[in-house]
Design brief:
InterPro entries: HARBI1_dom. Pfam families: DDE_Tnp_4. This protein is an alpha+beta fold and 342 residues long. The chain is globular and about 65 Å long. The protein has two domains: 7-163, 2-Layer Sandwich (Nucleotidyltransferase, domain 5), CATH 3.30.420; 189-331, no CATH class. It has helices spanning 7-13, 48-58, 61-65, 82-87, 107-130, 134-137, 145-163, 173-185, 191-197, 222-229, 233-244, 309-319, 330-337, and strands at residues 14-15, 20-21, 23-29, 35-43, 71-73, 91-93, 208-210, 254-256, 263-269, 277-285, 290-296. α11 crosses α12 (309-319). β5 (71-73), α4 (82-87) and β6 (91-93) form a beta-alpha-beta unit.
Length: 342
């Protein structure tokens, strides 16, 4: 929204996180993407938990829509209201918070969080649909604010019948197979992390640098990679991570363990911080199982239910991209070269 001449409105709608003035809506979306309702607008300074608490205490919509024992899939912003939802009889699932004393989620925490994000993506997809409407895709004129709540609800109501569900066929054989596999692997331990922790694979000994053309690695197609990663999100990130880590000769900088030539290590630059780099380990087999295990030092790098984007970029490059004449994006390179870095 625009900046207002009303001082109170300015203070109550300014979001320190987004660094702009805005109002918020709370959306209730079913697993297939069907929108039950969008409630709002609420002030920009209110967080998700505060808005949810307001809806529970003052409005009756939640009790009318949901039955005792229903499962609520929430994001981390609902942390302060989770107990209230549980007291109302709902089962709440949310990604895990990283404690101050932790640098990384445990394998079980990371796996449980992955189960939540695998289901919750329909909410983000619904919001993406909303923003395709021109009036909601740009800054809202302040005179529209009194009508904005009705406009959002009308658009949400129109999306349900005319755009249809986001998840069209929930009983699809491929989706059911992925869901079954994820449930089976959610309790799987990260054996490679254990080996590194016990010193069976040394992180301090001299690892040998290799050009990627000298590495024999299992070849995989994109369908196999999607099954390995349980989705496409990590595959979408793979190109930008790969482009940043190619050397001047176009090779991915790979290291091989001195005691085991089927364990690789790469040092990956964080996309968020220049000062942060992560080591990523991949254990593979050329004879039987293909990719055996992986581990990364990032927050979610210990999970066995899929992998982080750092691991995915290395596996994608070695198993697919280098064999299909991968070329970095000329457009991104041209834009980056246009800036004078100091």
């Amino acid at each position: 929204m625009e900046k207002s001449s009303d001082h109170y409105l300015n203070r109550s709608t300014y979001s320190g996180q987004k660094c702009r003035h805005l109002v918020k809506f709370m959306s209730l979306v079913l697993p297939d993407g069907y929108v039950v309702d969008s409630i709002g607008p609420f002030q920009g300074t209110a967080n998700d938990a505060t808005i949810a608490q307001q809806i529970i205490e003052i409005r009756n919509e939640l009790s009318e829509w949901c039955d005792y024992g229903d499962t609520m899939i929430c994001d981390r912003g609902f942390r302060d209201v989770i107990q209230t939802l549980c007291d109302l009889g709902y089962e709440v699932k949310s990604p895990m918070y990283l404690n101050k004393s932790q640098n990384q989620h445990s394998t079980s925490e990371a796996n449980e969080s992955r189960l939540v994000t695998k289901v919750r993506w329909t909410v983000e997809s619904y919001h993406a649909r909303m923003k395709k409407w021109r009036i909601l895709s740009d800054r809202i004129k302040n005179p529209f604010l009194p009508k904005l709540g009705d406009m959002v609800r009308i658009i949400s109501a129109a999306l349900n019948p005319f755009r249809g569900p986001i998840l069209v066929d929930a009983q699809n054989d491929d989706l059911c197979a992925i869901a079954k596999m994820m449930k089976e692997q959610v309790s799987k331990n990260n054996t490679l992390q254990d080996d590194i922790g016990r010193g069976l694979i040394s992180s301090r000994s001299h690892w040998k640098n290799l050009d990627d053309e000298d590495i024999e690695f299992p070849e995989m197609d994109l369908d196999t990679l999607r099954s390995l990663f349980f989705g496409i999100y990590q595959i979408k990130q793979r190109k930008t991570y790969t482009e940043e880590h190619l050397d001047e000769n176009g090779n991915y900088v790979i290291q091989v363990a001195p005691e085991n030539n089927e364990v690789l290590r790469c040092r990956i630059q964080s996309r968020h911080s220049n000062a942060t780099r992560y080591y990523a380990w991949i254990q593979y087999s050329l004879t039987s199982n293909g990719i055996v295990a992986w581990h990364c030092q990032c927050r979610s790098g210990a999970r066995t239910l899929g992998c982080c984007g750092h691991i995915a970029s290395v596996i994608w490059y070695l198993s697919y991209a280098r064999l299909h004449d991968f070329q970095p994006s000329i457009g991104r390179k041209r834009i980056a070269q246009a800036i004078e870095y100091i």
